[in-house]
Automatic annotation (TrEMBL):
Belongs to the short-chain dehydrogenases/reductases (SDR) family. This is SDR family oxidoreductase. Pfam families: adh_short_C2 (PF13561). It comes from the Bacteria. It comes from Lutimaribacter marinistellae. PANTHER family: 3-OXOACYL-(ACYL-CARRIER-PROTEIN) REDUCTASE, NADPH-DEPENDENT REDUCTASE BACG.
């Protein structure tokens, strides 16, 4: 399917690896020029080079922490008149509800709620003026069904979800859509880190921890960054203009819901 977005320009935050990279690859395959970002420059430059070679699109890189005001300013400047925005950042650490203090919440809110909001506030006006835009926020299945040990993530991401629900309806008249993609477990470094934690605390191997988790998913496997990216690229396509303010689960059926 031709996604109809060849020649458009996208900012994909936190995209040297994992789900962000999956989104960047799928957009590049559709002919979209990219601004990529991550804190570490080695993996970022390798990813950028691989995407340029595979897809022949223009790829700029900005190595910085997107959760800081300085990092946001650098990335926003590089994004220029971006038509597509994919927000992403690392997730907060797991823990226990009774241990988190104010600073832990502020950090999580900064990374997973206020950072995507800052990017939307910066890029939405230009998209609205030009009459076309696409925003996809990478959130989590935890906004539909809480993951107790990820309480910081549950809190920050549901806050973002509430903001998007109203804002998406305000920008839709100008041809701009905002939607959230909710990953369940996907085979990335983040999943490895979570599985390592389980392996350590339960005295089992990481393979066993992974197999146990996969067995709880109706699809009986982890998702891939490639299939996540394909869903993102579709939401950014010309065909998705009537999909507004939605929260789309990509979790192999793991979240047990009727609607
Ligand atoms: P990942 O494989 O660890 O990749 C994270 C990417 O983001 C890397 O490129 C990393 O590069 C970059 N990054 C992290 N923090 C950053 C920051 N502050 N500023 C700029 N770049 C940053 O993670 P992932 O699995 O793709 O997860 C992406 C998001 O989805 C996370 O918020 C995660 O919590 C959420 N999520 C993931 C899953 C899953 O199963 N994978 C499930 C639910 C939710 P640098 O380290 O070099 O900065």
């Amino acid at each position: 399917m031709d996604l109809g977005i060849s020649g458009k320009r996208a900012l994909v935050c936190a995209s040297s690896k994992g789900l962000g990279r999956g989104c960047a690859e799928a957009l590049a395959a559709a002919g979209v020029d990219l601004v990529l970002n991550a804190r570490g420059s080695d993996a970022l430059e390798q990813t950028a080079a691989a995407i340029r070679e595979a897809h022949g699109v223009d790829v700029q890189t900005v190595a910085c922490d997107v959760t800081t005001p300085d990092g946001q300013a650098q990335v926003i400047e590089a994004a220029g008149a971006a038509d597509i925005l994919v927000t992403n950042a690392g997730g907060p650490p797991p823990g226990m509800w009774s241990d988190w203090d104010r600073e832990d919440f502020i950090k999580a809110l900064d990374a997973n709620m206020l950072t995507p909001i800052a990017f939307m506030k910066a890029l939405l006006p230009g998209m609205m003026e030009r009459g076309w835009g696409r925003v996809v926020n990478i959130t989590s299945q935890s906004v539909r069904s809480p993951i107790a040990v990820l309480g910081l993530s549950n809190a920050a991401r549901t806050g973002l979800t509430g903001y998007v629900a109203g804002t998406a309806r305000q920008v839709a008249p100008n041809g701009v859509t905002i939607n959230n993609l909710l990953p369940g477990i996907h085979a990335t470094d983040r999943a490895d880190a979570l599985d390592s934690g389980v392996a350590k605390s339960e005295g089992i191997s990481i393979d066993e921890a992974r197999d146990r988790r996969a067995a709880t998913i109706p699809a009986r496997r982890y998702g891939t960054a490639e299939e996540f990216g394909a869903a993102c690229a579709f939401l950014c396509s010309q065909h998705a203009g009537f999909i507004v303010g939605q929260n789309i689960l990509l979790d192999g059926g793991a979240t047990n819901l009727t609607v």
